[in-house]
Design brief:
Structural class: mainly alpha
Strand content: 5-15%
Shape: elongated
Largest sheet: 4 strands, mixed
Order of helices and strands: HHHHHHHHHHHEHEEE
Strand order of the largest sheet: 1-2-3-4
Radius of gyration: 23 Å
Number of strands: 4
Helix content: 55-70%
Number of helices: 12
């Protein structure tokens, strides 16, 4: 190109990163920042550079990039993309303390911020921190995604709160075991509770009504969901009301 600018260099960096060449992406960043090109990086360039450091767990280079971010004043202006990239870089490079500082220093967090720090805590084995952050997220009325629940369920597994194995005997279809497990995911009470968790205010009780007996698999699953979501879950089946709270059911597992 006869003329190169920050936009073209950032596109080249992103191409290298997504093509599986993070080291080359960092080389372009160094040319922009300290080399012959001398373009002033913007928040998108920093985010790409930090993501490249994360891909190769380059903590020292990530710290240098962070120092340059601070010098440029981008963090103080609350660029969410840069904050998210910092959380990702530090967590993947082995520094959960720095990842936490990056998260708490953000003036505003989005769903990517929350998911990143929850999964970081879970990956490091800090299950209580992951669950506490999840409840803080709900208190901020941020809607969880499947990525959120992956981190939360992993945290619960670390704490021994998830002892959950699909009970394929509850699947009546005459299919292979793998398909039976798949069918269990779509039992009506599970789908209704998932909908309620996504759309109802944090901490609000969820009431489900059905005209069939609740199966054993759903009964175990809903007990665990009541722990993870910190909610009261009430399910009325053909026999009785089941009130799930803190991993226990009012029926005392007899119905």
């Amino acid at each position: 190109m006869p003329e190169r600018n920050g936009v073209s260099c950032n596109l080249l960096m992103a191409g290298y990163l997504h093509g599986g060449f993070p080291t080359q992406a960092l080389s372009v960043f160094k040319l922009m920042s300290f080399g012959e090109l001398l373009f002033h990086p913007n928040e998108y360039v920093f985010a790409t550079a930090l993501a490249s450091c994360a891909d190769i767990s380059a903590l020292d280079e990530g710290r240098q990039c962070h120092a340059y971010v601070l010098k440029s004043g981008l963090v103080s202006h609350s660029y969410v993309s840069v904050g998210n990239a910092l959380i990702n870089m530090y967590s993947k490079s082995g520094s959960i303390d720095d990842a936490t500082k990056a998260f708490t220093s953000m003036l505003n967090q989005d769903i990517i911020s929350w998911n990143s720090i929850i999964n970081a805590y879970s990956h490091f084995g800090f299950a209580k921190g992951a669950l506490e952050t999840f409840h803080n997220m709900l208190a901020e009325e941020e809607t969880p995604t499947y990525v959120t629940f992956i981190g939360v369920l992993s945290a619960c597994a670390h704490l021994g709160l998830i002892g959950y194995v699909p009970n394929i005997a509850c699947a009546s279809h005459d299919v292979e075991d793998e398909q039976k497990e798949e069918y269990l995911r779509y039992h009506s009470e599970k789908l209704a509770i998932a909908f309620g968790v996504i759309h109802m205010p944090p901490g609000a009780a969820i009431y489900i009504m059905k005209n069939l007996r609740m199966c054993d698999d759903c009964h175990v699953a809903v007990k665990l969901i009541s722990i993870v979501t910190n909610r009261k879950l009430v399910v009325r089946d053909a026999n009785r009301f089941h009130c799930f709270e803190s991993g226990c059911c009012s029926c005392d597992d007899y119905w």
